[in-house]
Amino acid sequence: MLNDILENRFIENLASTFARSPLQENGLQESDAELIRLTGSDIMLAIKVDSIVEEIEMGLYRDPYLIGWMTVTAPASDLAAVGAKPLGILIAETLAEDSERHFISELQRGIKEAGEAYGIHVLGGDTNFSGSMQMTGCALGIITDSKPMMRRGCKPGDHIYSSERLGLGSAYALSAYSEMGNDKPLDYRPLARLKEGELLRRFASACMDTSDGLLATLDQLMRLNGTGFDVSTPLDQILHKAALDLACSSGIPPWLTLCGPHGEFELVFTIPPQRVDEFLQAARNIDWAPIYLGRVTETCNIMLNTGGGAKRVPTGAIRDLFSKVSGDLKRYISALLETDAAGR
């Protein structure tokens, strides 16, 4: 079932030649970060590497401050999704040979301020120059009781939540591409939910971040757990205001802003029903109001309340779509609109 998705199949093929470490707790695709048991200790090391490449090449991230911010935020969000406390980050910067001093200064400011926001220190890294820019962050964290969150573990009847409203990632991408040549896309500076992730480790049965959007996240969780998800909460209570506004102004159905492939780096997680009250009280204690989405179901499909009632969403086809149109935004949106029309 996992390998029905092009990206999963590709990753499986890449990893098939490697032996897994006997100290590694997670299987392939089972968690947002790699989880390593330290021999003779209850401490578990969480490691995640993320590169900002396509986003730069395609013009999605043009602001150097945002590029620096996302170099830290992307891997930090994966630490949050396993409930790890951050230790630090290693950063590899491949800079364009003609980079201006102000550009580099703003890039470093983005890295610095993201690190300060998360309490993550830059431990070191690597610097190179090339014809094009690439940025990579490798974040490290610890789990002191050997009980990480993983993507596996949810059961029918569990409640589904998100850490905040969703859809901002897709809304930002649509605004950025439509504003090519104009430096004013939507404001976009996602936060890695590290504090929330550490709390969730006490309660969540499964967790994953929405770096690829809600529907891709739920689809992957469905394939890993053999369950479905009924997102029964109305879209106006789930979607970020910017996503709703963009859908209204552009005339696209609001649910399409949940399709990705660019997300908002929130956490989507499941809570067993008997732990819900205790979880919500703990969330209130840290001034956090998670967004209720719906329930885990036995049937392996994704149901979404699009405003006209429950609708089954072909999440597998949607996940593969951006690759099948070779990243062509106009063809991607056109195909999504066809999917919407076919589902009515």
Features:
22% strand, 2 domains, 344 residues, single chain, globular, 36% helix, 11 helices, alpha+beta, seven-stranded mixed beta sheet, 12 strands, five-stranded mixed beta sheet, 60s Ribosomal Protein L30, Chain: A, Phosphoribosyl-aminoimidazole Synthetase, Chain A, domain 2
Characterise the protein shown here.
Helices cover 36% and strands 22% of the residues. With 344 residues, the chain is α+β, with helices and mostly antiparallel strands. The mean pLDDT is 93. The chain starts with 5 loop residues before the first helix and ends with a helix. It is built from eleven helices and twelve strands. The chain folds into two domains: 20-143, 60s Ribosomal Protein L30, Chain: A; 159-342, Phosphoribosyl-aminoimidazole Synthetase, Chain A, domain 2 (Alpha-Beta Complex), CATH 3.90.650. A seven-stranded mixed β-sheet has the order 7-9-6-10-8-11-12, with helices on both faces. A five-stranded mixed β-sheet has the order 1-2-5-3-4.
